[in-house]
Design a protein that fits this description.
mainly alpha
Length: 64
């Protein structure tokens, strides 16, 4: 999708790493605020991906 999404990919990777640490080492490490922030970012990203697909690959976008 381009360079503009690299920082978002880095953010998601950081969240994944933190989740793995929490799952195996320190339960409860992720705050409700962090979870809500991730949810907000994911919802925005989903919309951006759908918009991008509609613009660049309308046949793949189908009934998004």
């Amino acid at each position: 999708m381009g360079q503009e999404f690299h920082s978002r990919a880095d953010y998601f990777d950081m969240c994944r790493t933190k989740r793995n640490i929490t799952d195996y080492d320190r339960a409860g490490e992720i705050s409700k605020h962090e979870a809500n922030e991730l949810w907000r970012v994911v919802k925005n990203f989903k919309q951006e991906v759908e918009d991008w697909l509609r613009q660049h690959y309308p046949k793949l976008a189908g009934d998004l």
